[in-house]
Amino acid sequence: MAGRRILSSVWEGRAQTVRRELAALAAAGYGVAELHEAAIELVERIVPTELTCWASLDPDTAVISSMTSGRARIPGEYEPLLATYEYDGAEPHTFAQLARRPVPVARLSDLPRRERERSGRWAQVWRPLGLDHELRVGFRADGTCWAAAGLVRRGEFSDREVEFLSSIGPTLAAATRVAARARVGTAKADPAIIVVGPDGRRRGATAGAGKWESELDAIAEGRFAVMLRAVVVGAQAAASGTFRARVRDARGGWIVLHASRLVSDEDAGETVVTIERASGAELLGVLLAAYRLTARERDVCREVLGGLSTSDIAARLGISANTVQDHLKSVFGKVGVRSRGELTARLSG
Question: How confident is the model at residue 304 (pLDDT cuts 50, 70, 90)?
């Protein structure tokens, strides 16, 4: 028992060091991709892997918004498979599943053998690459999962390594939340429409599609094809037949991909994907979550952005004018503004 306490103390010391370094990165004003790149290097010193990929998650939907790999990249031919398994609704331990779990950490080896062997990631990606063990972890702060990581290697992940990642999780999530506020750019680009067949191949596209492909591939070669595959698979698996993802671009701005299944008999199996720059309304939910506003504070903010007066907001939300003012005072403090005008400019900028 004494040896175990000493070991636990050593690991906690490592976790404290990494948490301090993550906090320093957040304070330095890093964007999400830069933050995760630096965080991967910190974690690799403690939990070595053959392959690792970290993702920022849309706080509203838990859909992947950005991906950052470690020094060794997953071979490009496997990325479409991973995108498919992430959203097909049949795979264990997806990032969206982790985001909903009380403890957002999962080892593939903890599954019964039969379930593990049914995993597409394990059977079709990791085993062909000679890798046997996968650890996935969600990074959550104040109930919201802002990021997740997949770590893969030949040897098993120990309980201490799992505890270490769980320990740094809230700090990493908070740092990602801060980074989500950075560089919400607004460069103009034409919307595009792409039709994808049931075989996953593009059957048609508007002229603007090439511009979006170049923009996403500037982040990593093949990123456009991977994200296109992801939203198409998501739409095919969803009962509603639709799927939406907000994705960071190379400049730290946001792009929205929206996929919808075609339902007419002659077009069965085809999916239409629209791609466009995120509007202020699309980004508002991300920003309100990033500033840690409560549900009621978010309601008040939306009414302020709609131009309503204090009395109108009170009537709309069924609360008193004094309560509206109390919520606004709290919002101003969290967002770092002093007036409604400054609040509107900050959230609409």
Answer: very high
